[in-house]
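Notes from hallway chat w/ T.B., transcribed later so I don't forget. T.B. wanted the structure written out for a chain they're using in a teaching module, and asked if we could keep both sequence and structure tokens in one place. Agreed to drop them here.
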Amino acid sequence: VVAAPAARPRDGGRRMIVALDAGHGGTDPGAIGRSGVHEKTVTLQATLALRDLLEADGRYEVFLTRATDVFVPLRERVRLARNAGADLFMSIHADSLRDHASVRGLSVYTLSETASDREAELLAQRENKADLLGTVDLVSHDAQVADILLDLSMHQTRIESLLLASGVVEAMR
């Protein structure tokens, strides 16, 4: 048995809060693999294992959007993570390619400057100002200042997301 190292707080003396989101759940099985395994089961197992690794490291406090087989809508998952003060929100999913069993790998998605489809664009238009800045009060600023603050926040989030994505891909090699 290896003892977990003592907590090593990062700048400001607190541990980074990581929100782990096991995709799907409850009545939403997600993708179904060749053997019949549901994505919701795979993602929950992977999320719990990742939680254990991060907590054993000592530098992270982990928040789970779900720890059992329940359905939690996406907006609620994001709200829960924000309320927990998460520094990082990581949603874990598992794809299934029934006709291509030999295919292996992973995908890492990050915040994009452009919407991937019309639905994503409409969601972004409705949610971005309120959700992406969280604690910044855009209502008290004029529209131009609010747009600048949003752009700055999104730009920094994209940079940090790309750095994390590169690290994840490199670690998986």
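Follow-up for T.B.: The longest strand covers residues 16-22. Might be a good example for the class.
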